[in-house]
Specification:
The structure is a homodimer. With about 160 residues, the first copy, chain A, is mainly α. In chain A, about 55% of the residues lie in helices and about 10% in strands. The first copy, chain A, has a two-stranded antiparallel ribbon. Chains A and B meet through helix 1, helix 2, helix 3, helix 5 and helix 6 of A and helix 1, helix 2, helix 3, helix 5 and helix 6 of B. Chain A binds a DNA duplex (23 and 23 nucleotides) through helix 4 and strand 2.
Chain lengths: ~160, ~160
DNA sequence: TATTGTTATACTCTATAACTATA
DNA sequence: TATAGTTATAGAGTATAACAATA
């Protein structure tokens, strides 16, 4: 009876009432692509027990060790209060640590712990494999161009 | 003192330890673009009191009236149980209704209410304006190509 | 047996507002 | 006054597992 799979069917019939253009919106397609990718990512990295969102926190800390929570929030586009909870979770798992900043006792310098660095290192092969597998419908040139366009849009 | 804005700075310093390629991953850039777009969308449509996620539920119901909850979940890439809560919220606000399906008493046919249709109609101008504004750094050709690549990726 | 919807449960992600400590 | 972090609070979004009704 032809099972319907997620990636097969989205909007089976033409839209009525002249609103058929909405599914061609950037945000709509961006969101759908991101949801699909996150699910595949989560499945591909399940053994490491890190959500895509948590991975998205570890990466900028690894790339810019010592940044503070406000800077991390700015880099991620989320509020300072959101960062607190995210770092709490990662600190509880001993992946990230808050270090005092010599010149400013209000601020915390964020660093990956040795364990956090090891985790990221261990995850890299799975992450790369996922990247290759998930972008399987794109040529390498298309994949690069997609990333370039996304950067132009958001960064 | 040069305030740092979200769209200005992401990864201020080159990544150490040979992991600098991670920020070039598809998922990382997809997520960042989507977060930025959703926030701008939310701000641009704040008066309508609909989250980007809720908008993303209303659109496929409008495009495919009468679909059931399992089909909606498949279309959105989320679990059936997630759909229940999402529809509950929209039904409570009288934007969506569950109708009985003649041939199958297990199933609910989803439809926008008159109020839901009016809301969507009223939102369209703001949504289009947001689309134009947000993709301001892209040419129209680039915007179209980005959407084409996203469709190729996710559905 | 299989499918549709639901509930119970738990966790992540998010923001606003008010607060403390520090600058 | 302004900034960094925190807490309290609230809500959205998500999944898994178990269940009832129906097919």
């Amino acid at each position: 009876m032809s099972e319907i799979k997620r990636r097969d069917v989205l909007l089976p019939t033409p839209a009525p009432k002249g609103r058929g253009l909405l599914p061609d919106l950037l945000g709509y397609n961006l969101r759908r692509a991101q949801v699909a990718l996150f699910q595949d990512f989560a499945a591909a990295t399940a053994e490491h027990d890190v959500t895509p969102g948590q991975f998205g926190v570890l990466v900028p800390i690894d790339a810019t060790p010592g940044l503070n929570q406000t800077e991390l929030g700015d880099a991620m586009g989320v509020d300072r209060s959101t960062v607190v909870a995210a770092i709490d979770r990662l600190q509880k798992r001993n992946l990230v640590e808050r270090r005092p900043v010599p010149g400013d006792r209000r601020s915390h310098a964020l660093h990956l712990t040795a364990q956090g660095q090891q985790l990221l290192t261990r995850m890299v092969p799975a992450v790369r494999a996922h990247e290759t597998q998930f972008s399987g419908h794109l040529t390498e040139a298309e994949r690069r161009q997609l990333i370039a366009l996304l950067k132009k849009l958001a960064g």
